[in-house]
Design a protein that fits this description.
The chain is of the alpha/beta class. It contains twelve helices and 18 strands. Helix 2 (71-79) links the parallel strand 3 and strand 4. The longest helix is centred in the N-terminal third of the chain and has 22 residues, at 120-141.
Length: 415
């Protein structure tokens, strides 16, 4: 049986002498996978190199090394797949076999991930994660991303051509004139029902008229997204300060809250980063500037953020106009910080923890303090001024997605 159409191949590896130690493992994994895992081929028990011939065409592999004496099987299995997660179990010389085979695979340039096996649910969770990442990457590749008005002038590095995006990522960049954006704002009508979007604010320090103007920007972006069939966008939002005496902060906040990727300032590399992060995690992304970096601590700030917890409606920091959003990110939660560089070659990612921070008025309105090992690399090895942040640990998913996209992965926190 060939697996050329299989997204994920799953197998249990055993030496002929160790078959008796497997027990009901093969059947238990089959039951766990059941029929809930489309595009998965379960190869069952593999105990000889000759049996590996049926495993051609595997995009991703998940192997449970049940016994020792399986080094050649591990190598042969992983060589058939784009990348492989290898589970080892306690006892039966499973781990020694994995430790012997893994360096060979890495010398061959193969991507392998090692995990300890505890139950059949581990296999199912891994398969579901890989499938979710494949779906996210496929979605990103087919995306139409809107660039409204071009990048802001100060983004001298964080810009990329549509041709390079198409070549490296697969997404299409749709150029939309700022004049069309302004026309959509002018024709937008905000009713009483639209104000429900911000009824949950714990405090408001702007006039109701400013909120209505900001919501017109939101409705204009929704209209543009629908017209051009976009799955994400980034406007040159600072132009609105002079053109319409308002800002796009609240609009982008509401879009990201609804899991629609929306970046500020025409920053396409960051928009791609946010889209990838939101697609693989199903969680909203925050776009921030690192404004303080000291040792393993950094503070990110921006006037827009998804409404994931308690928030205030304030003005935009630099202009004092429009509506900026100050969201309280939960202290003690893990958070994944990441960014794709403008050359679309590298994804930088790290896992940190949100810490308590005393809010300051000399920074953008949402401020997040993060403890992140190696944070100073953000300064010493800069790849631009915006980063995306998502609550939770999504490092592994972003790593897998990056490899599918052909990006190198740079771990901030592994220095």
């Amino acid at each position: 049986m060939k697996s050329s159409k299989a997204r994920v191949l799953v197998g249990v590896l055993s030496s002929p002498l160790g078959v008796g130690a497997i027990g009901s493992l093969v059947e238990e994994i089959a039951r766990a996978l059941g029929e809930k895992t489309p595009q998965v081929e379960y190869a069952g028990l593999i105990k000889s190199v000759s049996e590996l011939e049926r495993l051609e065409g595997c995009k991703a592999g998940v192997a449970l090394v049940a016994t020792g004496g399986t080094e050649e099987l591990i190598i042969g299995f992983a060589e058939k797949c784009g990348f492989t997660t290898i589970f080892y179990r306690d006892g039966f010389n499973s781990l020694p076999a994995v430790l012997e085979a893994t360096p060979v695979l890495r010398d061959h340039g193969k991507k392998v991930y090692l995990k300890r096996y505890t139950s059949p649910g581990d296999i199912l969770s891994e398969v579901e994660k890989i499938s979710r990442v494949y779906e996210a990457v496929g979605r990103l590749k087919s995306c139409r991303l809107g660039l409204i008005g071009g990048p802001s002038t100060w983004l001298v590095y964080s810009r990329v051509s549509g041709d390079l995006v198409k070549e490296r990522i697969g997404s299409e960049i749709v150029l939309i004139p700022i004049e069309e954006f302004v026309r959509e704002i002018d024709r937008a009508v905000v009713g009483e029902g639209d104000l429900e979007a911000v009824r949950g604010a714990r405090g408001v320090e702007v006039e109701g008229g400013e909120i209505s103007k900001a919501l017109k920007v939101y409705k204009a972006l929704q209209a543009i997204s629908e017209k051009y069939n976009l799955c994400g966008l980034t406007p040159r939002c600072f132009d609105l300060i002079t053109l319409r005496k308002t800002t796009g902060c609240l609009a982008l906040s509401l879009l990201n809250t609804s899991l629609y990727p929306a970046a500020c300032e025409g920053d396409v590399p960051l928009l791609i980063s946010m889209a990838l992060g939101e697609f693989v995690s199903g969680k909203p992304a925050f776009m921030g500037n690192p404004v303080i970096v000291h040792g393993d601590e950094l503070v990110l700030a921006h006037c827009t953020a998804p409404l994931i917890s308690s928030y205030l409606l304030l003005t935009h920091f630099e202009s004092g106009l429009g509506v900026g959003v100050s969201v309280d990110y939960p202290v003690g939660r893990e958070a994944t910080l990441f960014r794709i560089d403008p050359k679309l070659e590298n994804l930088r990612v790290g896992l940190g923890v949100v810490e308590k921070w005393g809010w300051r008025r000399d920074m953008c309105r949402t401020q997040i303090k993060l403890r992140l090992k190696g944070a100073e690399r953000i300064v010493k090895e800069s790849i631009g001024n915006h980063y995306a942040l998502i609550l939770g640990d999504w490092v592994e998913e972003l790593t897998l997605a990056s490899q599918l996209l052909g990006l190198r992965v740079d771990r901030i926190d592994e220095t």
